[in-house]
Amino acid sequence: MTGLKVNRGWGKFFLIAAAMATVLILANGSFQPAMSAEKIKVAGVFETPIEEPWVNQIHMALLKAEKELGVEYTWSESVKSADFARVMREYAEKGYQLIMGDAFGAERIARRVARDYPKTAFVFGSGIGPAEPNFGVFDNWIHEPAYLSGMIAGKMTKSNIIGVVAAMAIPEINRLSNAFYAGAKYVNPDVKCKFSFIGSFFDPPKAKEAALAQIEDGADVVYAERFGVIEACVDKKVLAISNMSDQSKLGPDTVITGPIWDMWPTVKYVVSLVQAGVFTAQDFGGFSYMAKGGSYLAPYHKWEKKLPAAVKALVEKRKKEILDGTFRVDIDESIPK
User: Fold this and answer.
1) pLDDT attached to residue 214
2) Which residues 6+ apart lie within 8 Å of 317 measured at CB?
């Protein structure tokens, strides 16, 4: 009887220790799924075509999860608001444990569907907070590399006029535009910035037209927040800053660098929570910060030798300060002026 009591005591001790370890792991944000974790089914629901940079970064991270984490992944693109609920429900009814996508244009729809499937994890790009029990959110918090890009633009402009062509004046885009301009002003107090909003998340011809108008007005470095801008910069032989993904191939002599949004840290963490059965509604936006590896500057490619060493050194110094936590890029979501 004594031996039995001792074994039960140690068993209880180990159970408590294991539970505490799990809590600590989750608190530190470094949870790793067990080797025997269930293979989960993941679906992507996207409002725009896959080639649109914002959506593409989520898509690429989910493809990586399929390869490295063993999930089963499928997706639907160019889903209109009228079809959003139907597509989400079809995936939920088919037993997909995790559904991800962009909810900005279908915010209320996505949240309403999620409430009907409390055992399914929903994680969507959103400018609003999470909703219990199962609706998590994220956003492209890439204002830090946008600021660094602005520093480069401020140093490289010859006309002291730079430009931003973006989708629309919403908080998520305003903070990138304002950070870009703030970085430029930091290194060049005389620089002025033109802002154009095309009113769409994906309209390359309209973005190109807006960029051409800015260039006509003197802008010689343009932040291509949307697709179509780089084409205008190539045509007019002015410099461009890309956005979201490495777009150097669109204009190797034109694109210096730009903010990259890497959704892999976010996707990896979310999948691990779902696999472990411990998913809760959270704001996963923090995983997009530079310190978490969720954003960074694109490689300079051909500009590695063309960009002045003094400019690269200035950017590298500020980058280190951001990563060290000794400099914080302001989050300004007001409409740019």
Assistant:
1) 98
2) none
Whether 97 and 65 have beta carbons less than 8 Å apart is answered as no
Cis peptide before 133 (omega within 30 of 0): yes
- Farthest CA pair distance, the chain: 90
HSE of 22, CA atoms in CB hemisphere, 13 A: 13
Tokens representing 220 are 């010689």
* Residue with tokens 């889903």, as numbered in its chain: 79
Predicted pLDDT at 105: 77
Q: What local confidence, expressed as pLDDT, does residue 52 receive?
A: 86
pLDDT at 198: 97
Residue 76 makes CB contacts below 8 A (sequence gap 6+) with 43, 44, 45, 46, 87
Residues of the chain with pLDDT under 50: 1-36
Domain 143-243+307-324 has CATH 3.40.50.2300: yes
CA distance 153 to 81: 37
CATH of 41-141+263-292, one of 3.40.50.2300, 3.40.50.620, 3.20.20.150, 3.40.710.10: 3.40.50.2300
